[in-house]
Design a protein that fits this description.
Number of helices: 11
Strand order of the largest sheet: 5-4-6-3-1-13
Structural class: alpha+beta
Number of strands: 13
Length: about 375
């Protein structure tokens, strides 16, 4: 893939970018869903699919964005990097560039940049975070900005929140920027304290099941859940001094949950607070290699995401409930924003082929959609590879 990227770059820009090639993996969250923007603790890991980028500086102020995944050619100047809906995917790297300039980092030349991703987009594997992180790491190197990894990660989140107007948390960006091969990251999204947890899966595999169902309103629903969580927090703050929902223990919540008169807000808070606790126990079970108990928590998380957070949808419910009926399955739950997208499945290695065949067959019969499956391997975090 790297050689193809180099060849296509030379063809497009009549120049070589051999010394400026970066890779940022995709990621998914093992457990701890929809709590990163509520101050919770999450447990993501990185995968061997991701985004490659190659670039060289120019002598003028022109920036040319190209991708082997899209036919659109986006040309802008340093003087005009504002959001443009027509620029579609290029708004993500533009957001990083805009935030660097806003933060007074010296990006004083244009550049040519070419991307290629083997990550399926919009299914919960952090494809947009991957392009953001690879852009940030590449520009940091290209312009010798000397920003530490963690600062680059935080800059990417700020760019999403302010430039793209998305209420996303730091989870995916942190995993991609700070990830290590065969490790999960137990991350406190409030303090950014973290711990690497070995993923010793023994004779098990993580399998992604892509429903191939996407909803145009996913971001709208996501932002709605964000608002609902904030509303539930405001009610709880009338009696409990906390600055986020995940700072509330399950015991305190049980003692004060009657404060929340709106049933929908109560269910949102219920999911967030108990999901935070499930993440703690999931990490403890992974440390002791108790994959059976770990898998049970995945299933419990899914049931709460469906019942309490209402973020799944027919297709996700179908593919996960079908998975629950398969031999060799340890646990299954949705990943990503929800309302379609993917599930993550922990399966005994000798049942993988049967699992894929059987789940795919039943899912097709019930939804008339064809699922795609990916057997995942671990990856390092973002890195320079040239």
């Amino acid at each position: 893939m790297i050689e193809k990227l180099k060849a296509e770059f030379a063809k497009l820009f009549d120049a070589k970018a051999d010394k400026n090639i970066f890779f940022a993996p995709g990621s998914f969250n093992l457990i701890g869903d929809h709590i990163d923007y509520n101050g919770g603790k999450v447990f993501p890991t990185t995968i061997n699919l991701g985004t490659y980028a190659a670039a060289i500086k120019r002598d003028d102020n022109i920036i040319r964005f190209r991708s082997l995944n899209y036919s659109t050619k986006i040309d802008i100047s340093l003087e005009n990097i504002s959001f443009n809906k027509k620029h579609n995917w290029a708004n993500y790297p533009k957001a990083i560039l805009a935030e660097l300039i806003k933060s007074n980092y010296s990006v004083n030349n244009g550049f040519d940049i070419l991307y290629y991703s083997n990550l399926p987009s919009g299914i919960g594997l952090s494809s947009t975070a991957s392009i953001e992180i690879v852009t940030a790491f590449l520009l940091n190197d290209l312009f010798n900005l000397k920003m530490p990894r963690l600062e680059l990660v935080k800059l990417c989140q700020k760019a999403e929140n302010e430039y793209l107007k998305l209420n996303n948390g730091i989870l995916n960006k942190f995993a991609i920027g700070m990830g290590k091969k065969n490790q999960g990251i137990y991350l406190d999204t409030k303090t950014l304290k973290y711990e690497y947890i070995p993923l010793k899966l023994q004779n098990h595999k993580f399998i992604i099941a892509n429903t191939n169902k996407t909803y145009p309103t996913t971001n709208t629903v996501y932002n709605e859940r964000y608002r609902e969580c904030q509303q539930a927090l405001e009610v709880m703050q009338t009696k409990i001094k906390v600055d986020n929902l995940c700072a509330i223990s399950p015991i305190d919540f049980e003692n004060h949950k009657d404060l929340i008169k709106d049933g929908i807000l109560a269910r949102r808070a219920w999911h967030v607070i108990y999901e935070n606790q499930r993440t703690f126990y999931a990490v403890e079970f992974m440390k002791t290699y108790d994959l059976k108990a770990f898998g049970q928590l995945l299933n419990q998380s899914q049931m709460s995401l469906k019942r309490d957070f209402e973020i799944t949808g027919f297709e996700l419910d179908t593919i996960i409930e079908t998975a629950w009926n398969q031999r060799g399955l340890i646990g299954s739950k949705m990943i990503g924003k929800g309302m379609g997208g993917c599930s993550i499945n922990l399966v005994k290695a000798n049942f993988v082929d049967d699992f894929i065949k059987n789940v795919g067959k039943v899912y097709k019969e019930k939804t008339n959609l064809t699922a795609n499956f990916y057997i995942l391997e671990s990856s390092t975090g973002a890195e320079k590879i040239s």
